[in-house]
Amino acid sequence: MSDFVNNFWSIYIAVIAIVGIFGCLLLLILTARKKVDSAADNTTGHVWDGDLRELNNPMPRWWMWLFVSTIVFSVFYLIAYPGLGSFSGQFKWSQVGAYEAEVQKAEADLAPLYARFTAMSVEEMSKDSQAMAIGANLFQNNCAQCHSSDARGGKSFPNLTDNDWLHGGTPEKIHETLTQGRQGMMPPMAAAVGEAEDVRNLANYVLSLSGSPHDSARAVLGKDKFVACAACHGADGKGMQALGAPNLTDDIWLHGWGEATIIDMINNGKVNIMPPQAKENGGKLVPAQIDVLTAYVWSLSNKPSTAN
User: Fold this and answer.
1) Same domain flag for 284 and 251
2) Is 143 annotated as a binding residue?
3) Is 233 annotated as a binding residue?
4) Buried/exposed code over 52-77 (b: 16+ C-beta within 10 A; e: otherwise)
């Protein structure tokens, strides 16, 4: 059914284009042959404002040939380029093809520049002003939409400057994250915790782990319920980077904090996705660009210390 509908629209568009072209040609022929009776003074008889008369002069020859030339041009254009439904044209031009050609040319032009960086370690690149300038541009074009232009993120988007990493902040882990992307998921835990009051008690215990404002009495009651969370967050609540489970003791809240927010997380869970940035996995960046971006992101939380 889908193929039938798509084929119909292709034919529909092609017919409209062809009928439009030949309709213009037919209109020109009919109007050229039509004779309009005129008075002896070569006017149509229409008079405005007492003395303004409409002359019955034919259209200039140059205008008519220009009109014909546009029709002829449109015919050859539709033969050479896409325009008649799904017909791709003799030149096989497409927006996607033009874009990919420009990308390939840009990559070829930049290859000598990136070649210098491939021999450098992440730490060395982080000290290279040219590499960091390129990394900053890559970040603004590909990462800032979520992590913000200053890399401090926002609600549900990690801060990349604070050295608090869900999956680890080593150059290898950052490179892995950029290449493959990440999918974080916390399943709904209410059924494993118990009744609504148990969930509320657990939420207060979680808040107590970081010293955040909480109800101390409820936190005591919720401590035993934390066993449902310990498999991912650890018995001490400090998380597990191997699973991407957040540290609950550091007072850094990716999705917001407070009793109501924690209760909502326990009841409904949360899914967070970072898409891969590597071209090989559906992103836009080639390996050399991933390397430079890795160094830039690593540098955001590994600023060299300055002597006092």
Assistant:
1) no
2) yes
3) yes
4) eeeebeeeeeeeeeeeeeeeeebeee
